[in-house]
Amino acid sequence: MKAKKINITILLVLLIGCSSFGKINLKASNKMILVRGGFYCPLFKSDNDSSKQFIHAFYIDQNPVTNEEYLKFVKANPEWRRSMVKIIFADANYLRKWKSDLDLGNEVKSNKPVTDISWYAANAYCTWVGKRLPTVAEWEYAAEKLRMINNSNDLVHFYEWTFDFNETNIEASSICGGAGASATNPKDYPAFLRFSFRNSLKANYSMDDLGFRCVTGIN
User: Fold this and answer.
1) 167 is in which domain, residue-wise?
2) What is the chain's pLDDT, residue by residue, as a tens digit (219 residues)?
3) Which of 46, 145, 162, 202 reaches 20 to 30 Å from 5, CA-CA?
C-alpha cells in the first residue's frame, strides 16, 4: 500500500514556519506527559516495512489545545485570525463558532478543545510554542500507552491532527471491506475510523470534531 506524499504547499509552510510566527513562546500552559520509547505496530504497512517500528521517547500535551490557548496565539499572530487567514491555509469553517477574531463569545468555552482548525493552523501554533504536531505513529502509540482516549465514543466524535495525516492510503470502504484483512489488527475498529478519517482530509480543512495537541522530543 503506497503512502501519499505531503504536498509541496505543506513543505513550503514548514520551511518558513520558524520565521513566520515571530519569537517562539515556550510558556504554553498545557502540561505534558512523558511517553517512554517502545515498539509500535502500525495498523497498515507497506511490503517493505517491518511489522513493528521503534518510537523514541517524547512528551505529549496532556490535553488538546484549548480555545483560550489558541486565542493567545491569534492575538500574537494576526495572520491566523479568522478574518485574515488565507483560504489556502484554512477553509471557510475556520474558527466559525467564535464570535469574532478575538472574542470567543458566550457559546464557546475557553477551557474546551479548540476545533475548526486546519492542519496549517495547528502546525503554526505548535511551531509558535516551540513544539510540533505528533506523527501518526506517535499519536497512536501514545493513545495506546496512556489511554488518552477513554472510549469509542470519543474516537467517533473527536479527532486530532497529526503531522503526516495523509500518508496512509486507506479508503472509507476499507473499514468494512476486504482491504481490512490486510490490517495488523482487523478487529481494531476505532483505529480504522481514525485512519479512514485522516485519509479523507486536506490540510486546509477545518471541522467541528477535529482538534490537535502538540509533542516535543527529548534532547
Assistant:
1) 8-18+26-217
2) 444 444 434 333 333 333 333 333 444 557 899 999 999 877 666 555 556 889 999 999 999 999 999 999 999 999 999 999 999 999 999 999 999 999 999 999 999 999 999 999 999 999 999 999 999 999 989 988 876 655 444 444 579 999 998 876 555 444 445 555 555 555 555 676 787 788 889 999 999 999 999 999 987
3) 145
Long-range contacts of 86-90 (CB under 8 A, 24+ apart): 87/204, 88/9, 88/204, 89/13, 89/118, 89/120, 89/121, 89/204, 90/117, 90/118, 90/120, 90/121, 90/204, 90/206
Q: Which residues pair with 35 in a beta bridge?
A: 58
Task: Examine residue 1 and state whether it is found in any structural domain, yes or no.
Answer: no
Q: Is residue 2 part of a domain?
A: no
Are 170 and 196 in contact by the 8 Å Cβ rule? The answer is: yes
